[in-house]
Design brief:
heterodimer, A: 199 residues, mainly alpha, 9 helices, 3% strand, globular, B: 558 residues, alpha/beta, six-stranded mixed sheet, 11 helices, 21 strands
Chain lengths: 199, 558
């Protein structure tokens, strides 16, 4: 999966500030907590999202990564993936932020579009989530590690991670080779060629 | 007690233990290899090796339960769901930390040979002469010429791919064809060569075979080595030494066998065997042999010695010098630099190379003089960014998706691996107040890097930055992510070789001065740490020591 250099480079990038999606999770869900906190957190079982919430997250993720010429996040079952990650990988305080975030997202939808997220059309959904993304980016600019994470950043990170490591994301949106058989350090690349799913 | 007798006993089945078993059995000795953990069968037990990323529920990451169960492993990249079974159960096998110490262990047949980084470098006389020239610790009792033929022997069997670079500080070996640098690495290497007289960037030398070898299939560039390789393309006990040893008909492998002590005979002043605690049944057995190879990994080999012959030497077998358990070394790392590459947008790579580039040591060599002694090497690689990069101007939707399906810019990073000096005060000892699952005392770690290493870390960052900038990279930033002893997973020095029984635990042939039929040929034997990855040196020392042991056996000297 990864050798030592990859892992180290990943950590280097992480510490360098380019924290997003997969890097964040692949290097741990709780980078700043002490062992004691981890132990306490780990002893608990996280909340399980219900089918309705998962369906809701499928729709939200599909606005972040929609179907284009390749299937989007809903087809890749990103809602279910998010539920697993929140349950198993998040610390309790982040689980709470995430769960509450679904209500906050719904409230924000009412406020902007006058209706719930599921009732919105594609353009309204996109406008809402674009606004929420701006909100989380602005929040992130001044956020200290001790301050709570933003729920929409969590949703966006989990969507990207869940989608691009899914079978659909890795093999259709990206290119995946189970057994390359050889290494070539310089092959022609032209704009539009898909990236490799794994390194 | 049940009793069993062999010609030779090997304690541990990792890189050096497996190598000892191969050499001993090939020389005709009936040998038992004792491994404390479970068996891991080649290919069959590499349960995740053929899984795609999406087949892992957390896509390779770590859960809160895993973090709770593996508090030590969770300190670094090592904790992940793809090869969790290869790492020690920390609840069963705790240890004590007087000072923070990262001990990443693999208790199974094959040990850490299953997950190792595979970088394989010879040492040179700059390393073997270093202690003598600097007047610190003790002198190595051997020089490069003593080990060179055994390096060849190990390389030819293990299969090390690499380029013959002609560098005195990194002697060339008997290599398989090298892997290829990618276009950016080639460019950076050329610019470094042009700018510096004594700095070189070369392709990593790795224990991945690049052509078929001993019924092993050459590397398929999947870069999933640490899950176990179904092609047997990287050197491990399972892929290489174990089948060779089994083929002789002289090997017995016994998993779940915790060696609790080496049995010492006061009359003959030799070891006569070992006591084994069966990890599954808790029953005790005794095994007897003429020679014993102790290859339990550096710290655990010291543990076995400390727990042995305490009626003769209270601090354990091999403790008469007062050096047993002292001089703990590792390679300190997690400091370097990375930056962005301009250009090469029309080029990409094919395949996943399980290897990177290497910058051999250049500090305090060839007339260079720093405010610290010794030096460091760099490992690193260049690559194009993937979907996890941050694109500030992108928000959500189809634009984001399309942008992420294309590779980003090229980036490159360098991570220093620095030499740690052998400080007598860096030590491990038995903590008899704390017991493991089997009621055995655990190790306590009291070791840290000091002023020399801290000074070196400044160069590890600044030199990387300077070299990447010389090579034309932009936005080059340094990093120092901190380091605990042990984190390099290159533990060394706890039963060092030397020229004098008063100041060392082992002699020039890795024999315990106090019991010459006991050979220690893992990291414990190291007198200094150099900055190169050490496993190839363990293989060479092991093969050399077996040759000595068998010849002494014939002469009836052991």
């Amino acid at each position: 999966m990864m050798n030592r250099r990859d892992a180290l480079a990943r950590v280097a990038l992480l510490m360098g500030g380019a924290v997003i999606g997969g890097d964040y999770f692949l290097t741990g869900c709780s980078p700043a907590s002490s062992d004691k906190e981890k132990t306490q957190a780990g002893a608990k079982t996280g909340p399980t999202l219900d089918a309705k919430q998962i369906a809701y997250l499928d729709e939200v993720s599909d606005t972040i990564i929609p179907t284009t010429h390749t299937p989007g996040a809903k087809a890749a079952k990103v809602g279910s993936f998010m539920a697993v990650m929140v349950r198993d990988c998040y610390k309790p305080q982040d689980q709470e932020i995430f769960t509450k975030g679904l209500t906050q997202l719904e409230d924000a939808s009412q406020k902007m579009n006058g209706k719930g997220f599921l009732a919105c059309d594609a353009a309204q959904r996109k406008a809402l989530l674009t606004a929420l993304d701006t909100e989380q980016k602005n929040y992130g600019k001044t956020k200290t590690p001790e301050q709570p994470n933003h729920y929409f950043r969590m949703i966006k990170e989990l969507t990207l991670l869940g989608y691009f490591t899914s079978e659909i994301g890795a093999t259709q949106a990206l290119r995946y080779l189970p057994v390359p058989g050889k290494y070539e350090g310089s092959v022609p690349y032209k704009k539009g060629d898909r990236a490799w799913a794994t390194t | 007690m049940e009793k069993y007798t062999y010609d030779a006993i090997v304690i541990g089945s990792g890189i050096s233990g497996g190598f000892a078993a191969k050499e001993l059995t090939e020389k005709g000795l009936k040998t038992i290899m004792l491994e404390r953990g479970r068996n891991v069968e080649h290919i069959k037990d590499y349960v995740n090796a053929n899984k795609a990323p999406w087949e892992f529920p957390h896509r390779g990451g770590k859960t809160q339960q895993m973090i709770a169960d593996y508090p030590v492993l969770s300190r670094d990249y090592t904790l992940n769901e793809t090869n969790l079974d290869f790492w020690v159960n920390e609840k069963d096998s705790p240890y004590a930390e007087v000072k923070p110490f990262d001990w990443f262990r693999g208790y199974q047949v094959g040990g850490r040979s299953l997950m190792w980084g595979r970088q394989s470098y010879r040492w040179s006389d700059y390393d073997f002469e270093a202690n003598a020239k600097d007047g610190i610790a003790v002198d190595w009792p051997i020089r490069y010429k003593d080990l060179a033929p055994w390096y060849s022997h190990a390389e030819k069997f293990a299969g090390i791919s690499g380029n013959r670079d002609g560098l005195p500080q990194l002697p060339d070996g008997d290599f398989m064809p090298p892997m290829e640098m990618n276009c950016v690495e080639k460019d950076v290497a050329a610019r470094i060569k042009k700018h510096y007289k004594d700095r070189h960037m070369v392709i990593g030398r790795t224990a991945n075979i690049t052509k078929p070898h001993n019924n092993r299939v050459n590397c398929q560039y999947r870069n999933k080595c640490w899950l176990g390789c179904p092609f047997g393309a990287y050197f491990s006990t399972q892929s290489a030494t174990l089948p060779a040893a089994v083929a002789t008909g002289n090997l017995t492998l016994r998993p779940f066998s915790i060696v609790t002590k080496i049995l010492y005979d006061k009359d003959t002043k030799r070891a006569k065997g070992v006591e084994v605690l069966d990890a599954e049944t808790n029953k005790t057995y005794e095994y007897f042999a003429k020679i014993i190879f102790l290859n339990a990994s550096a710290l655990n080999s010291a543990w076995v010695l400390m727990n042995s012959a305490t009626d003769v030497w209270p601090e354990g077998l091999g403790s008469s010098s007062g050096e047993l358990g002292h001089n703990v070394m590792d390679h300190h790392f997690r400091a370097g630099a990375h930056g962005d590459v301009e250009g090469f947008e029309d080029q990409y790579v094919y395949g996943r190379r399980a290897n990177g580039i290497y910058v051999p040591r250049f500090r305090n060599l060839f007339g260079d003089k720093r405010d610290y002694i010794r030096g460091f090497g760099y490992q690193g690689s260049a690559g194009r960014q993937g979907w996890s990069r941050d694109i500030a101007e992108m928000s959500i939707g189809a634009e984001l998706k399309e942008a992420m399906t294309e590779p980003g810019i090229w980036t490159m990073g360098l991570t220093g691996f620095g030499e740690t000096l052998p400080y007598h005060d860096n030590r491990i000892f038995l903590d008899k107040t704390k017991k493991d699952k089997w009621g055995l005392p655990v190790l306590a770690m009291d070791a840290t890097i000091r002023d020399n290493e801290q000074k070196m870390r400044v160069d590890m960052m600044q030199d990387a930055k300077e070299m990447l900038e010389v090579a034309g990279l932009k936005n080059v930033t340094t990093y120092n992510n901190g380091y605990n002893m042990g984190g390099g997973i290159h533990e060394m020095g706890t039963a060092r070789m030397g020229r004098d029984p008063k100041t060392s635990v082992l002699n020039a042939h890795n024999q315990v001065w106090d019991a010459p039929n006991v050979y220690v040929t893992d990291g414990a034997a190291m007198t200094s740490a150099a900055c190169q990855n050490p496993s190839l040196t363990y293989m060479a020392l092991t093969a050399r020591a077996v040759d000595h042991a068998v010849s002494e056996l014939k002469k009836q000297n052991v």
